[in-house]
Backbone:
């Protein structure tokens, strides 16, 4: 490239740069004007049909078409949110009915075995748990021998894995530890991919409820635990009456 060609190329690049700078200045001026006059397009509606906006499909569309598309998308999102809210409302109603039915059944329970049977039936059928277990704490040697699957020694070393949960009366949802699953679900522990553990406390630590699922999505740490915690309080009150008796 000779000196004349190089000079021409430099001038051309400067012109292109100058044009870009001028275009940017014009764009900024236009943006500022529209921001200061938000009703500009309302006062000049004829511009809506001539201003072109790039579309995902690659073709250019008018601003009014773009606005219509945006409004349709907003309407779709609003409809989806409404559907989600309706689903939540239906779930809440179903859970409230479950708790009400459980309360009535527990009030009619005649002994501890019937309380446990009612609880397990409710947890399996109404909460869609693949595995449900009640573990009660006892120092009574006869109870421990007669119902080893239901009762656990109050000083069982395995209970150290539930120490914080019992002290804070917190319901756990999501991933239980291997030790927790082994204590609650015994031979089925390997099948548990997600779990909910509910402490049973009424003055003293009465025991634990374990809900297990083969799906990792059934019980998630992001789930609200209020329903399970309140259900645990209801069951604890019923158990306390019959365990004292």
Residues:
């Amino acid at each position: 490239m000779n000196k004349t060609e190089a000079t021409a190329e430099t001038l051309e690049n400067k012109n292109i740069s100058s044009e870009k700078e001028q275009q940017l200045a014009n764009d900024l001026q236009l943006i500022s004007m529209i921001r200061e006059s938000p009703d500009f397009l309302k006062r000049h509606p004829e511009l809506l049909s001539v201003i072109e906006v790039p579309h995902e499909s690659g073709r250019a569309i008018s601003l009014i078409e773009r606005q219509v598309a945006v409004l349709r998308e907003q309407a779709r999102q609003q409809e989806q949110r409404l559907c989600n809210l309706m689903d939540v409302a239906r779930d809440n109603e179903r859970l409230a009915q479950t708790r009400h039915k459980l309360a009535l059944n527990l009030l009619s329970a005649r002994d501890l075995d019937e309380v446990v049977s009612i609880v397990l039936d409710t947890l399996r059928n109404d909460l869609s748990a693949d595995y449900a277990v009640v573990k009660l704490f006892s120092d009574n040697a006869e109870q421990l021998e007669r119902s080893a699957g239901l009762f656990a020694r109050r000083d069982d070393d395995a209970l150290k894995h539930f120490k914080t949960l019992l002290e804070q009366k917190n319901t756990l949802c999501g991933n239980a530890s291997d030790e927790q699953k082994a204590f609650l679900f015994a031979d089925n522990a390997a099948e548990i991919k997600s779990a909910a553990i509910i402490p049973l406390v009424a003055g003293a630590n009465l025991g634990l409820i374990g809900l297990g699922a083969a799906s990792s999505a059934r019980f998630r740490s992001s789930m609200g635990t209020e329903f399970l915690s309140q259900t645990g309080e209801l069951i604890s009150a019923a158990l306390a009456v019959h365990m004292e008796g």
Q: What stands out?
A: The helical segments are 3-36, 40-43, 63-107, 112-126, 141-146, 163-168, 178-185, 226-244. The mean pLDDT is 81. The first strand starts at residue 52 and ends at 54. The chain is about 55% helix and 15% strand.
